[in-house]
């Protein structure tokens, strides 16, 4: 029997399942149908899926240490155990949805999503896409109930495949499956009558991750031999070709969103596209660089330094998009032609507020991206004024997340410590300058670059949270800047490369 408290948590959890149009909320786990997977329908169809959704709602409302959350999690584990050890009946679509939600909000999400994939393959979910497209191409009238059901199945299939791609590409391994699809098939689903605005977001992510996966495979194939000067041309071509593909992706999907998305969803959909694009640019260049084995920027050739600079510039834009998406637009902002998000200034401040519900992976990406942009700015010896501006934006992100942080304390603390350590490095540098008597001095006049590493900067460079070592494999945090004179070649070689 469901208690009144559980029912209250259920109602709070509905934004995990459906789009709340009044608040312009988006699907955070885009594997549900707005009309079919209603609160009442899920409650009637699947206790496993229902309890899983409620547990996430409880965590968002009361925090990860809530007794109610732990009781619900225990119940969810009982459901999963029952499914795994009693394979009498084939797993249902609702079971796969429940496990996908577990994966989205779990430290071991890659294990849960592997289980979901196995069950999906067992009941033939991949075939639903081809069946759907075959029916679509042959029918003369509107979609039948069978076709609508196939679209719901295809949505779940692409949703769990997308999670597998995310967890693999940013978890340090290639995906466990090869997604048998094409851009043409994905675009065919975009034009289907059952497609929603959230489906556009999902399908664009699937296409983006396929591009990223192809690039990673090519980079790893190249690095399996050697990364010498002979192979630099090949790496350069892989990066260049993928950058072109990503540019076409953002252009084409921005066009789709601008023409097809509902007016109340358009601005948020556009800002999400740009955030994802910049993330893909960051990880592409740093992944290509990491396989060279050179971590010291002082020892890099010009091509390698260019990749670091490109990644940093993308990281700066990534941070600016997040800040703009979470700041009320002003009349001046809409006239600012220099802003990277020109044309997106009408975005309502909802991006970071959805982090109350968002999956752990997105929290990890946010914390990492802020840490990375601050580190790269230091390593590339950006002027102090540039770092001050980045720190200002980082503080805005921190303050917004402080309002809604309940169940993601670890990543919030990583973000907070990153900002504190960067500020410490900048303060120590400014105090060492003979012409600077205060941190703010030099922002309006002439300023020198940060040419020497202070103790605080070295401490910041060495800051690599364990979550980004054991749970995620985001590239770039191993980079350092150790200037060398000829006499330095004879001491402490371990710190050089």
From TrEMBL:
GO cellular component, one term: nucleus
Compartment(s): Nucleus
Region (Disordered): 327-346
UniProt keyword annotations, A-Z: DNA-binding, Nucleus, Transcription, Transcription regulation
Domain of life assignment: Eukaryota
Major location category of this protein: nucleus
CDD domains: fungal_TF_MHR (cd12148)
Example GO molecular function: transcription cis-regulatory region binding
Nucleus found in the keyword field: yes
Cited PANTHER family: FINGER DOMAIN PROTEIN, PUTATIVE-RELATED, ZN(II)2CYS6 TRANSCRIPTION FACTOR (EUROFUNG)
Protein name as catalogued: C6 zinc finger domain-containing protein
Species the sequence originates in: Corynespora cassiicola Philippines
